[in-house]
Amino acid sequence: MLDAHKTESARKSGSPDTVNVGLLAFQGAYEAHRRVISRLGTNHIEVKTHDDLRSCTHLILPGGESTTFLKLLEYHDLTGALRDHADSKKPILATCAGLILLASTVKPFQDSLGILDITIERNAYGRQVDSFEADLTIPTLGDAPFHGVFIRAPKISGIGPDLTSLAAFEDSHVFIREGNIFGCTFHPELSSDTRIHKLFLESGT
Ligand code: GLN
Q: SS3 for the chain, per residue?
């Protein structure tokens, strides 16, 4: 059973099992992320308090509604703990609304945490009915395309010099990385492909 709680690289290196993935669980698409993390056999908890967040090695900020997340983060006084998590280089996987929370600039203007040096435009492809799916080329994951599900997705219109673009679609970045922080404008938890979650899990071990 213990083995099932280790990430691939922890298994290879024989390092102790220390991975504990936190799923911000106020609202939004965290349940689908949980299913992926479970399939990968990794420890995880729901994050709703400071103590939950501090006990995590990795954090997933799911999609949902960024305006609601902002209010709930403030209400539960979690903003500082989230910054501490990022400052201590612990991995974060931020998807869609979760990524909007981390951006330095949001258009139209909305408060954000400014943890990632990106400009992001909310609902830039249109409304819910304009949601779409597309096969993405992501060289860092290998040759097989990754099936991206975009739901009322934002567009990243600018990235700072320290960020790496891992994938683009049409004219904008859809998957970016800065250190151990990964950001997707699509929903990797909604395809059956676990490669993005594996990359995230292995980034901190
Ligand atoms: N449109 C949402 C927002 O701006 C994000 C949608 C999503 O997370 N799928 O917060």
A: CCHHHCCHHHHHHCCCCCCCEEEECCCCCHHHHHHHHHHCCCCEEEECCHHHHHCCCEEEECCCCHHHHHHHHHHCCCHHHHHHHHHCCCCEEEECHHHHHHEEEEECCCCCCCCEEEEEECCCCCCHHHCEEEEECCHHHCCCCEEEEECCCCEEEEECCCCEEEEEECCEEEEEEECCEEEECCCHHHCCCCHHHHHHHHHCC
